[in-house]
TrEMBL record:
It comes from the Bacteria. NAD(+) binds at residues 9-14, 35, 102-104, 128-131. GO terms for molecular function: 4-hydroxy-tetrahydrodipicolinate reductase; NAD binding; NADP binding; oxidoreductase activity, acting on CH or CH2 groups, NAD or NADP as acceptor. Its main location: cytoplasm. The active site is at 158 (proton donor/acceptor), 162 (proton donor). Residues 134-269 form the Dihydrodipicolinate reductase C-terminal domain. This is 4-hydroxy-tetrahydrodipicolinate reductase. Gene3D superfamilies: Dihydrodipicolinate Reductase, domain 2, NAD(P)-binding Rossmann-like Domain. It comes from Gloeobacter kilaueensis (strain ATCC BAA-2537 / CCAP 1431/1 / ULC 316 / JS1). Residues 3-131 form the Dihydrodipicolinate reductase N-terminal domain. Pfam families: DapB_C, DapB_N. (S)-2,3,4,5-tetrahydrodipicolinate binds at residues 159, 168-169. Its EC number is 1.17.1.8.
Length: 269
């Protein structure tokens, strides 16, 4: 049976892409659309695909209750702002709606609490810092490169409307590399920052992340490894938000078979 999908943040740039992708998929349909703007407008018209008979509302609980009444288990897709994300996910799980979350910036302690809540409810949940398949492949390549290089730094570049820094994807990449247990970036000299933050942010694993925010960018990440007489760079560039949609649709299908929270798209590939 087709999967009913509730899209939260449906009037945003990512939300509109989700509306288009779900509407075009043969095994799912848009059942509800939530946003604080374009209230009562048709979600399809806002997304640019014409009317789909789904009005935009700002009431998440009513929308989740509507999804829960469908014959097939439903999914909530959220690409919004980290503010209020914790409460939105708990609300969805309480109604038996499976969350697929692309919003980044949620606190680790909140993520741990949501994982416990989902586990107790035996309800699947997918939280992914990045839904681009190419980025997942980059991260896997980083693990291989980390076997041979002791020095690396991460540069992430995003549009100037991104609220959190560093990006969730950069943090996830650093955490994945650090999980090898290897000691990276051994000091050669005693560094002095003439301007605070000039060397970027330092995360566990002794890995530095540099964040750029500029108009004209969308989402980009480069991991640069350095060694004696050589450097090795891995880079992923997103030039259109449609790049995330295959991963989003995959997560919508996969989350129905889960009984707990899964962090990272690579866990369900």
């Amino acid at each position: 049976m087709a999967i009913p999908v509730l899209v939260v943040g449906c009037a945003g740039k990512m939300g509109r892409e989700v509306i288009k992708a779900v509407h075009a998929a043969p095994d799912m349909y848009v059942i509800g659309a939530v946003d604080r703007s374009h209230l009562d407008a048709d979600a399809g018209e806002v997304a640019g695909i014409g009317p789909i008979d789904v009005p935009i509302t700002d009431n998440l609980e009513v929308s989740c209750a509507m999804v829960a009444q469908e014959r097939s288990p439903g999914v909530m897709v959220d690409f919004t702002h980290p503010r209020g994300l914790y409460d939105r996910v708990r609300t969805a799980i309480a109604y038996g709606v499976r969350p697929v979350i692309g919003t980044t910036g949620i606190a680790p302690e909140q993520l741990a609490d949501l994982a416990e809540f989902a586990d107790k409810a035996s309800t699947g949940c997918v939280v992914a810092p990045n839904f681009a398949i190419g980025m997942i492949l980059l991260q896997q390549a980083c693990l291989r490169a980390a076997e041979y290089f002791d020095h690396l730094e991460i540069i992430e570049l995003h549009h100037d409307e991104k609220a959190d820094a560093p990006s969730g994807t950069a943090l996830a990449t650093a955490q994945l590399i650090a999980s090898t247990g290897k000691a990276f970036n051994p000091a050669k000299v005693e560094e002095t920052e003439l301007i605070a933050g000039a060397r970027g942010g330092l995360v566990p694993g002794n890995i530095r992340i540099h964040s750029l925010r500029l108009p004209g960018l969308l989402a980009h990440q480069e991991v640069i490894f350095g060694g004696t007489g050589q450097s090795f760079s891995l880079r992923h560039d997103t030039t259109d938000r449609s790049a995330y949609m295959p991963g989003v649709l995959l997560a919508i299908r996969k989350v129905l078979g889960l009984k707990s929270l899964v962090y990272g798209l690579e866990k369900i590939l």
